Amino acid sequence: MTQTATPPTPASEADNGTWDVVVVGAGPGGLTCGAYLAANGKRVLVLEANQVVGGSTQVFRRAGNKFEFDVGTHYVGECGPGGRMQTALSGLALTERIKWLRQRPEGHCQIMIPGTTFHTPTGWDTYLDRLIAAFPEEEAGLRRCVRIMRIVAAGESPRLRPYMLLRWGVRPITKLMDACRLSADAQAVILAENGDYTWPPHRTPTAMHAGFLHHYLQAGAYYPRGGGQVIGAHLTDVIQTHGGRVRTKATVDQILIEDGRAVGVRLRDGEEIRAEVVVSAADFKKTWAELVGDAHLTRRLRRRLKDLEMTLPMFAVYVALDVDLRERGTPPLAWVWPNNDIDGYYREVEAGRCPEQMPVGISCPTAKDPEGTHSAPPGYSTLELVSWAPKDHEFWNVASDPTAGATYGRDERYLQLKEELTQRVLDTAELMIPDIRERMVFCEASTPITQERFTLSSDGSCYGIAPLIKNLGPFRPRVTTHIPGLFLAGGSTEHMFGINATIWGGMGTAGAVLGRDLVEEVRDGAVFVDEADLTPITDDFDPLLASKPGSVIRRAVRRRPGSTRVGQQ
């Protein structure tokens, strides 16, 4: 794969015919769906509003390309041999091109609450043993709590599972822990990583949190070699080497419905593109409310959209340090809570307030991927510090639509709030890295408004619709719809959210379009791509350039010496 991005083809030349499938949105779900369809002979066009494909798996670079940061690829489960990730990639001949690095098998994530440090291991048995070691006086309650979660999530004791699902699986995880008489500290450790789905514990079904824990406990946590952008780069390559096309900077304004059937899309600039099938991997709420429109909705769907809640949005701070944290033994992944009131923080954010003490997830790409070519020069480290904050535009003093432009970025109140929350995040990060401010050479933050602007997501949410019981299992939106020719992909569908789930779901949506069970076929060994047909990977391969098919940037990655402190943007 060459260093140079694919030159754009004028729309009048490339898109004047009818495509078999148009995919709206080039996140991991949309790209995987497009790749499987292209590999199975469909003429596929993927449309992305941003200038870079990948959705929340994309990266960005700062300080003259000296530092690279992941937007949302922090750690992923089920990526080992036989896991869902490897299975989904195998059907596209990408298992050797997208490599997954296992993170600290002895404990992939360090959890810190006042007075307790806990390392999340692989395996339910080891997890229980470590909980008991941390809270020996609560052994009976911990055994009961973990046993119920294992039955619900891992399918152990099949005869008991239906009863446990009805008795506990549908109830909030806080109810289960209270029934097991767990202390606030023990509950905080069990809940500490729930920032990976940003939803209040008192509103999270036990089945949801237990399933989340199982995602990592069954085989550990992984990170893609080369950073999150390799995912979008290689999926794009499959599409474009198999007769398809990926267009960036192409915002879809409407999904065209004629005689009750989806027949194509209209872009914001008025261009119309016809297709036999439309797959929307865009935000679920906006797909129906804006792209399809009220006239084509069922009564049930209108009611659902009216009351639909989204997961809480992220506030992220991106930092570079002039020290290699690996030399200190700093963990590559951590969740740091300044207090043990997990639910209390969520209640404050839900109420539109941001407490002085903010929990922080800490991800260190330079430690997760020591041989990464773009994260930072030798002797430096990069950090992604994530928390969550109120979604309301009023909180951020944003009066206009952030997707229409970036004028909010010059508002004094917005900038003040951004700086205040940045300092709170750094305060918490100091609990693990005491000299973070002294060693910091770059710092930049993004808000829920930033997420909404670049991903066109409702309320700036990263994870789609909220994991309430009414949105889980058989109640979660299917990839097929009531409109013939219209399918869905992405994190708000039946396949759930997260990088692994959306990639798996993209394969599922492609199968629905084709009328085949691609999951079963791939599990049986089907490979639809000949790797020899893919673009050769050269020494100067740059995933970010390969993920900009609408750009004509022709330059190597730059590494400028010297420290740079960048202000808010």
Quick take:
Residues 218-494 form the Amine oxidase domain. This protein has helices spanning 11-14, 28-39, 84-90, 124-134, 139-154, 161-169, 173-179, 184-191, 206-217, 229-240, 284-292, 299-307, 342-350, 365-368, 412-429, 436-439, 448-455, 499-514, 518-523, 543-546, and strands spanning 19-24, 44-47, 59-62, 67-70, 76-77, 100-102, 109-113, 116-120, 221-224, 245-247, 252-258, 261-267, 272-280, 314-321, 333-336, 360-363, 381-388, 440-446, 486-488.
Second-tier CATH architecture of the largest domain: 3-Layer(bba) Sandwich
Strand content: 15-25%
- How large is the radius of gyration? 23 Å
Largest sheet: 7 strands, mixed
CATH class of the largest domain: Alpha Beta
Specify the CATH homologous superfamily of the largest domain.
Answer: FAD/NAD(P)-binding domain
CATH topology description of the largest domain: FAD/NAD(P)-binding domain
Domain Amine oxidase: 218-494
InterPro entries: Amino_oxidase (IPR002937), FAD/NAD-bd_sf (IPR036188), Retinol_saturase (IPR052206)
Protein name: Phytoene dehydrogenase-like protein
GO molecular function: oxidoreductase activity
